[in-house]
Amino acid sequence: MKRAAIVLLCTPLLFAAGCSASSQPSSAPAAPPAVSPTTSATGKATATTTATATATATGKASGKPVATPRCHTGDLKLKIGDGSGAAGTSYVALLFTNASDHTCTLYGYPGVSWVTGDQGTQVGSPFKRGGTQKKVTVTLKPGKAAHTIVQSSDAGFFDAAECTPTAVRGLRVYPPDETASVFVSSTGNQCAAEGVDVGTIWAITPGTKLDPS
């Protein structure tokens, strides 16, 4: 009796996996690829890049110190301090207190003039710059004060016809480099005539102690 021939049919599924009539066992599957050592290195490089970008964004990477801003008119509270006088000339400390919540600086001379009336009409010429104090940058922490010296003479020491004595109500003060002023009460008689009895304003210095020497 003849043996029936065995026909090996390959289905599409077998073609996909590979078709073989060999009775030999198929070779073992390939080992999974080794983990690339560059993966860790790449991860570290990414972390370094992110850290650098963050530092730059916050300004810490530059290493440049932030400059202390100057004191603006709204940062300051002004008032008259101690005074002294001799031979018809008076010296009064005008105090600048930092009323803000941040540190700021003052440098140079304020603009000062006498005023009168409800509208703050200027009396006489503005104070000229002078005195013996040198200009220095004064750093004011919140609550701390500096001062300038207001040097002036009483109108009674001048000829009335030349002086035109006028009652004043106070001082109009512009802090250094500012365009907004502050009124400081200080009554008396001053010359209204231009160029007569022009007062002197000194450079701003640290502290509140009056020292016109």
UniProtKB/TrEMBL annotation:
<feature type="domain" description="DUF4232">
    <location>
        <begin position="71"/>
        <end position="199"/>
    </location>
</feature>
<feature type="signal peptide">
    <location>
        <begin position="1"/>
        <end position="30"/>
    </location>
</feature>
<feature type="compositionally biased region" description="Low complexity">
    <location>
        <begin position="36"/>
        <end position="47"/>
    </location>
</feature>
<dbReference type="InterPro" id="IPR025326">
    <property type="entry name" value="DUF4232"/>
</dbReference>
<dbReference type="Pfam" id="PF14016">
    <property type="entry name" value="DUF4232"/>
</dbReference>
<feature type="region of interest" description="Disordered">
    <location>
        <begin position="26"/>
        <end position="47"/>
    </location>
</feature>
<keyword id="KW-0732">Signal</keyword>
<protein>
    <recommendedName>
        <fullName>DUF4232 domain-containing protein</fullName>
    </recommendedName>
</protein>
